[in-house]
Amino acid sequence: MCPTDLEVYNGLDGINVTQRKTGVQVWVPITSPLATAMATWERRPGPYLTRSDGSAWPYRSALTHAWSYELETNLTLAPLRTRGLVLHGLRGTACVRLRRAGASTVQISDMVGMSEPMVARYCRFSLQKENASAAVYHLERTIVERKIDKSENGG
Questions:
Q1: How much is the pTM?
Q2: d(CA 95, CA 98)
Q3: Alpha carbon 40 to chain centroid distance?
Q4: What is the tens place of the pLDDT at every residue in 24-63?
Q5: Is 111 in contact with 96 (CB distance < 8 Å)?
Q6: How far apart are CA 95 and CA 112, in angstroms?
Q7: How far apart are the C-alpha atoms of 80 and 155, rounded to whole Å?
Q8: Rounded distance, CA 99 to CA 127, Å?
Q9: Using the 8-state DSSP alphabet, how is residue 103 labeled?
């Protein structure tokens, strides 16, 4: 992804990405926090993400390997080691966060460039936890309401 891939649509910044696996081009909106960070990046030709020598990553697995190495050797990242963070998981995490924020499966699919069945797959456990925790809040609220009702009615 390069600065030339940026496009404003409906007043929102986004980046055009061609998926390697499917060849489909998707426009991925850029969130405000990312836009703020990107404003500090050096403006230069070529891809945003480069190796330490400034060259492009030759293939995706090289970047994945570099991330794994950095995670294991960089003391600053030590608290993250036990969490099993992998680059591939970033899209899944985005799906879950968007779902928890109330986005529909179609909206999430369009934003992260995944099919709706894949979005549903990534969110399946998140929804279970969300529903289970909502049930607990409902139950606890009901118990409190019943106690209030009994005390008001002399019971």
A1: 0.65
A2: 5
A3: 21
A4: 888 989 989 989 998 998 888 888 888 888 888 888 888 8
A5: no
A6: 7
A7: 53
A8: 8
A9: -
